[in-house]
Amino acid sequence: MKKVIEVEHLTKKYKDFIAVSDLSFDVEEGEVLGLLGPNGSGKSTTINCLLSLLNYEDGIIKILGQVMSSTNYDVKKDIGVIFQDIAVFEELTVYENIDYFCGLYIEDKQLRKEYVIEAIKLVGLEDFQKFYPKQLSGGLLRRLNIACGIAHKPKIIFLDEPTVAVDPQSRENILAGILNLRKKGATILYTTHYMEEVEMICDRVIILDKGKIIASGSPLELKNLAKIEEKVTIEDISLKKTDLEKIKSLKNVEEVSYNKTTLIITYKKGQHNLPLLVEFLKKENLEYQRIFSERPTLNDVFLELTGKELRD
Ligand SMILES: Nc1ncnc2c1ncn2[C@@H]1O[C@H](COP(=O)(O)OP(=O)(O)OP(=O)(O)O)[C@@H](O)[C@H]1O
Ligand SMILES: [Mg+2]
Prior knowledge:
Blueprint: E1 3-14, E2 17-28, E3 32-36, H1 43-50, E4 58-63, E5 66-67, H2 73-76, E6 79-82, H3 94-103, H4 109-123, H5 138-150, E7 156-160, H6 168-183, E8 187-192, H7 195-201, E9 204-209, E10 212-217, H8 219-223, E11 230-235, H9 241-248, E12 253-259, E13 262-267, H10 273-283, E14 290-294, H11 298-306
Parallel strand pairs: 3-8, 3-9, 6-7, 7-8
Antiparallel strand pairs: 1-2, 1-4, 4-5, 9-10, 11-13, 11-14, 12-13
Helix pairs in contact: 3-4, 3-5, 4-5, 5-6
The chain binds adenosine-5'-triphosphate (ATP) and magnesium ion.
């Protein structure tokens, strides 16, 4: 597989503060790579360094085999960027905005028209082509922001938290659009602090914390790093200390946490735990409202590695 992004030992400081520390990774052609990390972990800084929008202290960045610099227009035309902060023109309509950004790269008017219409379809803004940005909801505005970044059909797309503060319908639309772009052959670098998104769309994930890579691999490989194999939650249950002790000593139980009326039990191994637990609760006459079992998530892995939650 061809490497289209190569990052070696990237270090970026803001004065004395090290925002990104000795970061090395590659992205292969056609891959969706997720940069997952909590607020302030260095995701946007990394993207801005990759795009040569920021100077950095150390490191080598190659895109499409060429050393990246702010004046490397040959590479820049193959890149589409969707920034975390929305950047569109208030005085232009949806159609005109996309046409403007596409026009920076595509001169042929007929071809550009086709590309703009395709981008509008991809993000589902067909009914809003004549709207101005201030007439759009937050979710629709994010979709416009994306359409502006991808209309010229770039080979590599950087998306920095494109789903923050959008409604569920727009989120779904945005994620489906990204998968569609991948299907058409784009390579995508996607930052987020939503682990569910990473699980849905990323082939490979790098988990960042405080500017450092703390784990990387496919979503499945990362989840296999978790010490636990199953997590059972019981809601609205009233327990005494002695009940908790008994639960702790059940087979495969790794940890038990009881907060107000919710009990969470993590298991080292993930087989037949739920039926055994239900049987135990019945035998002990312990009543509850709801019980459910989950596989470990990337959040659990993050929690184990750093001692804190991904989402703050
Ligand atoms: N211009 C700047 N000057 C000084 N410090 C900065 C600057 N930009 C970012 N930082 C700091 O660098 C660290 C990394 O910031 P960055 O914006 O890259 O994180 P992020 O992972 O993108 O976070 P978020 O999820 O909030 O977007 C943070 O601690 C932030 O406060
Ligand atoms: Mg950011």
